[in-house]
């Protein structure tokens, strides 16, 4: 139930089906395996059993609390495309001190909302190959990108790593330079010096 000017209004009932992919805000994309009934504190409770492949975790969410918990069906392809397009925009203001910005980014990531995830990706992505990131900024960026990629992957029937690469390609994020790469000449011999 939701309130509007003090009146109780019935909210839209979420209808989930076994085998459906869903998004749980703090965990990302999972698959609804089954609905089971358990007795908790003497009361029968229907639970949605959701498995998260990436974190190897199973979560049980009471059906009556699913909407309050933020559990939702996958976004549409259109909404995901809009989120990715918004991540191409100019980074937001950096006037706030890092600890507050990091807390806001964390909140956006845990919201599970594709548009808020896109804000984090937009603000923290590298714009050119020489840009550097702090460890904490990199971790937040990667978490937001992975959450977007999980949903993108299911919508486009690909794996999460390929989805991450695809999103970064769409955004024009420069590839990282591999400092361990060995240059190979035309003969197939590496050009690194040996100690002989």
Quick structural summary:
The protein has 6 helices and 7 strands; from the N terminus they run E-E-E-E-E-E-H-E-H-H-H-H-H. It has 196 residues and is an alpha+beta fold.
Which characteristics define this entry?
196 residues, alpha+beta, Thrombin, subunit H, Methane Monooxygenase Hydroxylase, Chain G, domain 1, five-stranded antiparallel beta sheet, two-stranded antiparallel ribbon, 21% strand, elongated, disordered N terminus, disordered C terminus
Produce the secondary structure layout.
Blueprint lengths: L1 E3 L2 E3 L11 E4 L3 E13 L2 E10 L4 E6 L3 H4 L2 E2 L3 H10 L11 H14 L2 H11 L10 H22 L3 H12 L25
Helix pairs in contact: 2-4, 3-4, 3-5, 4-5, 5-6
What does this structure look like?
The protein has 196 residues and is an alpha+beta fold. It has 2 domains: 15-73, Beta Barrel (Thrombin, subunit H); 77-171, CarD-like, C-terminal domain (Methane Monooxygenase Hydroxylase, Chain G, domain 1, Up-down Bundle), CATH 1.20.58.1290. It has helices at residues 66-69, 77-86, 98-111, 114-124, 135-156, 160-171; strands spanning 2-4, 7-9, 21-24, 28-40, 43-52, 57-62, 72-73. It has a 5-stranded antiparallel sheet. A two-stranded antiparallel sheet has the order 1-2. α2 (77-86) packs parallel to α4 (114-124) and α5 packs across α6 (160-171).
Q: Tell me how many strands there are.
A: 7
Overall structural domain count? 2
With strands numbered from the N-terminus, the spatial order across the biggest sheet is 6-5-4-3-7
Rg from Cα: 22 Å
CATH uppermost class of the largest domain: Mainly Alpha
How many helix segments? 6
Oligomerization state of this entry? single chain
- The helix-and-strand class reads alpha+beta
How widely separated are the two ends?
Answer: 77 Å
- The residue-averaged pLDDT reads 83
Overall body shape: elongated
CATH homologous superfamily identity of the largest domain: CarD-like, C-terminal domain
- How would you characterize the largest beta sheet? 5 strands, antiparallel
β content, as a range?
Answer: 15-25%
Order of helices and strands: EEEEEEHEHHHHH
Any idea of the CATH topology of the largest domain?
A: Methane Monooxygenase Hydroxylase, Chain G, domain 1
Report low-confidence residues grouped into runs of 5 or more: 1-11, 190-196
> What level of helicity do the residues show?
25-40%
CATH architecture verdict of the largest domain:
Up-down Bundle
